[in-house]
Amino acid sequence: MRRAVIAFIALAVSLPVHAKDLSGQWGAGFSKALGPEGSGVSSLAVRYWVDRQLALEGLGGFRVVDRNTGDERFFTLGGRFLIKAVEEENLHVYGGAGLAWLYRKEGGDGNAGVGAEAFAGVEYFFQGLPHLGFSAEAGLSLQDVGDETAFGTWGESFVNLGLRYYF
After folding, report:
1. Is the entire prediction scored with pTM above 0.85?
2. Number of domains in the chain
3. Is residue 128 situated within a structural domain?
4. Which terminus of the chain, N or C, has less C-beta within 10 A?
5. What Cα–Cα distance (Å) separates residue 114 from each residue in 13, 34, 93, 147?
6. Which of the two residues, 101 and 9, has the higher pLDDT score?
């Protein structure tokens, strides 16, 4: 029995793990990263994996509300980079940073500014859905728009969820 257990453990450890390689692949979807504080803006996201470890992502989003003279407008346009720390068969663990141009208008004059973030995240691929990536990220954000500066966790929640389809 002892030999059978040792043989099973040796076999399990020696089996190759085929991690999801996204090198050279584009992914398109959405993310809640880099939005103006308190705006609820989600962004369209395009992510490109340069190699197994490095990805670049572009984000753009907006929200326009006309509540009969309330006139609210929020825009974001930014970019991020991701560095993979752990690669498993259907899961990537990464960290990264990003910068964005932000615009916020609530009622009166509009204000433009910048936002920066640092984050850690995971992207998961369900078995049988190899092109669909579900991500969750958590991080810190610093935003300077108009005469307001905000520092803290992202927007309305600590966790940022995203979804991307890889071509």
Report:
1. no
2. 1
3. yes
4. N
5. 48, 9, 27, 12
6. 101
